[in-house]
Design a protein that fits this description.
Layout lengths: L5 E4 L11 E3 L10 E8 L11 E2 L11 E4 L6 E3 L1 H8 L4 E4 L4 H13 L5 H9 L4
Antiparallel strand pairs: 1-2, 1-7, 2-3, 3-5, 3-6, 4-5
C-alpha cells in the first residue's frame, strides 16, 4: 500500500461499498496510522465539501462529479498490516491508483478543508504532505 492507492471495501455478506477509498498519508512513513478518505457523489447532496471535487476522467471509478469526503467522522486511520490482512480474504478490492496531478489536488484539498480532524491534519503535516 502506498499514498495515492485506491480501493473498494467489501462488506461481509454484501456487495462492495459504494465509496472509492484513497490512501492519503504515506504508509512507509507511519504504517500504524494510515489516513484514508473516500469519494462521495455530489448528486442530491445538500452539503458538500468543495475543497476537492473530482470529475469524470480524474479516475476510472468516477462516473459523476464527486467530492473528497474529509469529514472527520468519515475518514479512517488504519494500520498498514490491517490492510494486508483484508487483501487475503478479498475484503479489499484494489483499484487504479490516483494519477500524480489528481493526488496533488486531493492533498491541496486536505490542506484547506475545515472538516479534517486535528490529528489527521497533523499526520499529513508531519509527513510534509500539506
Amino acid at each position: 500500500m502506498k499514498i495515492g492507492d485506491t480501493f473498494l471495501i467489501t462488506k461481509p455478506g454484501r456487495t462492495l461499498d459504494t465509496h472509492l477509498w484513497i490512501v492519503l498519508s504515506d504508509p512507509a512513513a507511519n504504517p500504524d496510522k494510515v489516513l484514508i478518505v473516500n469519494l462521495t457523489s455530489c448528486k442530491d447532496r445538500k452539503s458538500i465539501d468543495e475543497s476537492c471535487i473530482l470529475d469524470v476522467g480524474d479516475h476510472p471509478w468516477v462516473r459523476e462529479q464527486s467530492y473528497v469526503n474529509y469529514l472527520e467522522s468519515e475518514v479512517k486511520l488504519i494500520k498498514e498490516s490491517e490492510y494486508a490482512k483484508l487483501l487475503g480474504p478479498a475484503l479489499i478490492n484494489p483499484q487504479k491508483p490516483l494519477e500524480n496531478d489528481t493526488l496533488d489536488r486531493v492533498l491541496r484539498g486536505a490542506a484547506i478543508t475545515d472538516r479534517l480532524g486535528l490529528g489527521q491534519r497533523e499526520l499529513l503535516k508531519n509527513q510534509g504532505l500539506i
